[in-house]
Amino acid sequence: MRVIAELPHPDFKISILNMNQKFIIKIEKGSLEQTYKIPEMDLTDGVNSVFELLDEDFLKTVAARFESMKKDFKDTYFRYNY
C-alpha cells in the first residue's frame, strides 16, 4: 500500500492510497476511520478523478457519518462499561 496524496481539510485527515489496482480513500477523524475503495479502471483520469469525488456534498455526509459512528460507539461503550 502506497500513499499517493494527502489532502488538506480542517476536520479530517484525508489520504489517497494505491494498492492492487485500486485507489483507497482513507478519511480519519480522531480514533474513527472511513475507507472507500475504487478500482482504477472505473476512473477515467486516474487520481484526479478521485479528487473530483471528494466534493463538499460527499464530505458533509462523511462528517455526518463520523458523528453517527461516534454516537454508536459511545452508546455501546457505556452499555458495557458503566
Concise overview:
The protein is of the alpha+beta class.
Widest β-sheet, arrangement of strands: 1-2-3-4
Q: Give a quick account of the main beta sheet: strands, pairing sense, barrel closure.
A: 4 strands, antiparallel
Instruction: Tell me the number of strands.
Output: 4
Order of helices and strands: EEEEHH
Percent range for helical residues? 40-55%
Percent strand: 35-45%
Terminal CA distance reads: 39 Å
Q: Please tell me the overall pLDDT.
A: 95
Give the structural class: alpha+beta
The number of distinct helices, counting runs of at least 4 residues, comes to 2
Task: Provide an overview of this structure.
With 82 residues, the protein is an alpha+beta fold. It contains two helices and four strands. The chain has a four-stranded antiparallel beta sheet with strand order 1-2-3-4, with helices on one face. The model has no long low-confidence stretch (mean pLDDT 95).
Write the topology of this structure.
Blueprint: E1 2-7, E2 13-19, E3 22-29, E4 32-39, H1 47-53, H2 56-81
Antiparallel strand pairs: 1-2, 2-3, 3-4
Primary descriptors:
elongated, four-stranded antiparallel sheet, 82 residues, 2 helices, alpha+beta
